[in-house]
Amino acid sequence: MTEHNCDDALSELQLYLDKELDVATVTRIEAHLRGCSPCLEAYDFEAVLRTVVARGCREQAPDSLRSKVLDALRACEGETESDPV
Predict the structure, then answer these.
(1) Which one of 11, 22, 60, 84 has the fewest beta carbons within 10 angstroms of its own beta carbon?
(2) From CA 20, how far away is CA 39, in angstroms rounded?
């Protein structure tokens, strides 16, 4: 069995978090994380980041902000259409 090094573990971290790896690879990554605090810290950071991003994606902008953004986009579209090419 080949040793699972930091480069391997970190390159597969996203797939590990997405649960897209085979059992053997998961086992190797988990063993590596148990013995490597820098990689475990990277895992912890990525896991927390995913949680924060997921939470932020569930929130909806207030209607007043949405209206302002849509108005600004419409204004930009109007400027683009009237600009000479």
Answers:
(1) 84
(2) 19
Cα–Cα distance for residue pair 69/72, rounded to 1 Å = 5
Q: How many CB atoms lie within 10 A of CB 30?
A: 13
Q: Is this structure's pTM higher than 0.70?
A: no
Q: Token digits for 30? A: 């988990």
What residue spans define the domains of the chain?
6-82
Report DSSP state, residue 18.
T
**What share of the chain in percent tops pLDDT 70?**
87
Cβ–Cβ under 8 Å, residues 72 and 78: no
Residue in the structure block whose two tokens are 């924060």: 52
- Please give the helix or strand (H or E) that residue 30 lies within, else none: helix 23-35
Which one-letter amino acid corresponds to residue 57? C
Which tokens in the block code for residue 82? 């009237």
Q: How far is CA 17 from CA 14, 25, 59, 62, in A?
A: 5, 12, 23, 32
